[in-house]
Amino acid sequence: MGILNFIRSLGDTAKEVARGVADAIGGLPKAAVDIYSARQETKRLEIHDRRLRDFARDEREHAAAATGKGGPSPSPSSQVDLLPPHSTVTVPPNQWSEEQREHERRLQQEAARLAERHARLTDELARGRIELKAGLRREQSDREHHQRKDERSHGAQVDYELNQALADAAHHREHTPFALVYPHQVSAQITAETRNGTLPALITAPFFRASDPHARIDPVNAEFDSHLREALRELPGPKLMAGVPGLFRRPLNRHETDLYLIRQVLAAHPVVLVHGEITEGWRTRVDIVAWNLYGEASAAATLPEVPRRLGTFDALSPLVPAAVRLSLPFPALPTEAGRERHAVQAQIATVAAGVAAVIAEWFHVAAGHDPQLHARLDGSLDPLPRAAALGTAAMLDVSVDRGLKAETDALIQQAATYQEVGLDEPALITARRALHLPTPGTRAERQTYLDRVRGLLPVLDSLKLGTEAAGLRASAEGIAAEENRRRLLGEDDSDGDDDDVRGRSGAPGRGKGEDG
C-alpha cells in the first residue's frame, strides 16, 4: 500500500506539474509535451492501481465466503496463483516471488524516474518563466526606447519643417512684391478673378519714384490707379480683361528681378501687367508687359506648377514664359497737386488702358473671336486703332494655325480690318488673296460661299476694285438663283448639278483648296 500511496502522490504531483506547465505552455512547448507524457503515464499507473484494489477486494470476499462454509483455507501459494501477474496486494513482501520482486523494482525505478523527471521539468519551467519574464522586460524596454527615439525624431522633423516654413515665409516677405505671402495664394486669386483663365488678368503695380525709392503707395500712385480704373471702365465694347486690384504691396523697384518673380508665379495665366516709373523732374514712363496671350498655357500638355519658393530654379520652378514689353514715355507731371496734374494723369491712364486693351484683344482673337476693338476706339487715340488692327490681323493667322478659323474667313476679316482703319495697301493685297474662294459643292458650302461674298463685297467696293466686285457679285447671284431653284424643286445635292451651277454662274474659284 505504501507503493500505491507513493504512486498516487506521483499522480497528484504530475497533475500540479501539468497545470503549471499549462500556464506557460505558450512560451515552453517542449516542456508542455514532456509534462503531458508524464501525465499520461500517471493516469496509466492510477488505472492499474485501481484494478489491483478491486481484485484484492474480490479475493478477500471470496476467501471469507470459503472460510464460512467450512472449507479449507487457501494456501498462500494458491493465493499467489490466483493473483494476476505483477500483483503485490495480498501477499506480504517476505512471501513475494522473484517475478513480484522484479515488478516492484521496476515500479520503484519508474517512480524514481518520474520523480527525477518531475524535478527536471519543474526546474525547466522555473527557468522558462524567468527567461520569459526577462524577454518581456527586454521587449518592453526596447519598445519604450524606440518610442522615445521616434518621439525625438518626430519632434526634430516637426521643428525642421516649422523652421523651413518660417524661413520660406521670411524669404517671401523679403522678396515678393505681392501683398499675399505665398505664390499659390496669388495664383489662386488670379484664377478666381479671371474666371479660370477665360479672360486675361490686368494687374497694376504702383509706380516707382526715383526721388523716394522706399515709398510704398503714395498719393501719386493712388491717383493714377483711380484714373486707370476709370479709363478701363470707359473702354468701348465687351469686357476684354479682368482687373485684379490690390495684388502688389510695393512698386517694382527691383525691376527685372521683380518681373521675373511675377512671371514665374503667374506662368500659367494670361496676364497684362501695367507698371511704371516717375523719374527726376516728374517725367513719367509707363511699362506694359504681357504673356500667355497666344494660348500657350492652354495649349501646353501640362500647366506649369506654382513654385514653392520664389526665385528658385529647382524642379518645381516653371519656365518663365516669353513676354511682350512696351515702354510709353510721357511728358513730366506737374509737381503741384491740382486739377492740371489730375488732367495729365487721366490722359496717361487713358492711353495706357487703350494699349492694354489692344494687347488683351489678341487673346480673344487668337481664341477664334472676331476683332472689334479697332472699330470702337476713339479716333483721338490714334494710332491705337491701327495698332489694334495690325495686332488682331496677326492673331487671325494664329487662330487659323490652331484650327479655329478657316483661312478664307481669316483673310476676309483681315482685309475688312485693314480697310476700316485706313490701311489700304495691306487691305488690297489681302482682299485679292481672299478672292480665290473655294468652289462650293454641297448646300452648306454654297451657303458659306454666299456669306463670305457678303463680307468681301463691301471691302472690294471701298477699295475701288469694281471689276473683281462685279465678277464676285455675278457669281454669288448665280449660285443664289440656283439654290432657290433647287429649294423650289426639292432637289438634292449631286455632282452633276454642281458642275452645271459652276458652268452657269461663272464662279471665279477654280482651285482645289483654300488657297485656290
How would you portray this structure in words?
The structure is a single chain. The chain has 516 residues and is an alpha/beta fold. It has a domain at 2-148. The protein has 16 helices and six strands. Residues 69-89, 311-317 and 495-516 have low confidence and may be disordered. Residues 491-500 have a biased composition (Acidic residues). Residues 87-97 have a biased composition (Polar residues). Residues 98-110, 136-154 have a biased composition (Basic and acidic residues).
What's the multimeric state? single chain
Helix content: 55-70%
Structural class: alpha/beta
- Total number of beta strands: 6
> Counting H and I runs of at least 4 residues, what is the number of helices?
16
Distance, first to last CA: 131 Å
Low-confidence stretches: 69-89, 311-317, 495-516
Strand content: 5-15%
Residue-averaged pLDDT? 75
Return the string of H and E elements: HHHHHEEHEHEEHEHHHHHHHH
Shape from CA axes? elongated
Task: Write a brief caption for the model.
This protein has helices at 2-23, 29-68, 76-82, 98-175, 183-193, 219-233, 256-265, 296-299, 339-366, 373-376, 384-401, 407-420, 424-434, 443-462, 466-489, 495-505, and strands at residues 201-204, 208-209, 242-243, 271-278, 283-291, 323-332. By secondary structure, the protein is of the alpha/beta class. Helix 1 runs parallel beside helix 4 (98-175).
